[in-house]
Amino acid sequence: MSDLDITYYSPKELLESPKLLGYMDFINSCYLPLHLHFHTFTTARFSDLEDFKTYVRDGNVTLAIARDISTQDIVAAGGYKRMSDTEAELTCMSTDPRLGGRGIGTHMDKDLEKHARKNGFKKMHAMVIREHGRVVEFYERLGYVKKSEELIKPGGTFPNVVEVNVWYMDKDL
């Protein structure tokens, strides 16, 4: 998509960015309770900036921010976190809900995979909430394959979700 400018941030660059709060706010806006598509959250994805910083630092997260070239508005965000020397997990994949169906998510995923491949990763994992509408089918179209499924109840690792079915999906890069 030639109308998007995608910028990648290493964990260090991200944590030092004066725009970090804006990035977190965009991601949170895509995961708000009663969101059109992602209605399974009871609170925002990150409770505050310190929570987001901890997630980035502890997860060794590389984040991509996509902006509309003409307006410089953020239209999508996504990233991956290192799982091992050869495996990464998609994280914070989000597209402005007003722009759904325009191929931005597909473009972001392909760009993230390309970036991860350039950095030596051979496999990408995705944790997909089944109740998020057609998101599972979206990842299947991109070549991800379901490896397992788990019923997650509120509390523990995911305190901000209602009861959901999580599909763990993988793709060779």
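(the above was protein one; protein two follows)
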Amino acid sequence: MKLHKLLSILSISITLSASVSANEAKLYQVEQLKVTTLSTMLANRGIGEWGYAALIEVDGRKILFDTGNRPQTVLQNVKDLNVDLSDVEDVILSHNHGDHTGGLETLRAHYQKLNPKALSHVHVGKGIFAKRVGRANRMLAMKSALENQGVVFSEYANVKEIYPGVWLTGNVARVHPERNWGGRGRIETSDGQIEDNIPEDMSLVINTKDGLVLVAGCGHAGIINTMEHIVKHISPHKITTAIGGFHLVNAEDQHLAWTANKLKHFGLQNLMGAHCTGINSVFALRELLQSNREQVVVGSVGDSFSLSEGVKPGGIAR
């Protein structure tokens, strides 16, 4: 009888331990993180362009988030910044627009000579290959060409942990009317044409001891919609840092005030607003958040954020 009870206790203990381990794995906190901007408009080192790309270095791994606009921009900028992409295998494309995907084929062609696995796994959101009405979706041709070179594409509709503590949002529900796309595009579906609201828009989330770090390309789903999606589906922790493009360049004062109020509730402390965020919008958010020029900055080529040093803005954006 005593042996039976002991075995039962051990069984429960093992079950609880497994459950705790699974939960801890889901909420794993990365120990090292550095995000470096490789493409955006402002630059005092390298080339500026209307586009976005960033290198994510996390716990010994490297991930390329978006690839810039012009074919040669990121390739030139990493040379100027003394950044090595030859050991990067994972690429995340936030959405189908050319200012985020334009450098991929050039980068793959260059680095596969040094490492056959370089840029060989491309992560995208579901809908990126959808047929667009009135214009060719160049992602289809790019996918075919790269697959012929051995590149693998993974497509996500839902949240996905690609490495411990490193998550992709998948498709984000448009709960709030943060309409920041053109509004004229259409997508062809089996049920007819629908509005092209960039359904594949996908962001990267890293769980750290200091809170969640969000990296976005354009944030077409809306920065607040994206953050609510993260809290609901990934982790309820504070989102303390937001980096990349958030398409607030044309936002009116009322919308910026609403956005800032929401950001306060998420615990945002650091904002590196690059690309389509808008310079004036970044300054407005800094004031509305009652922050400072050390933590809320305009993104520029070569700037960085790390767990050890925080925000390090580029010289032109100080």
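Reviewer note on protein two: Residues 69 and 102 are 4 Å apart (CA to CA).
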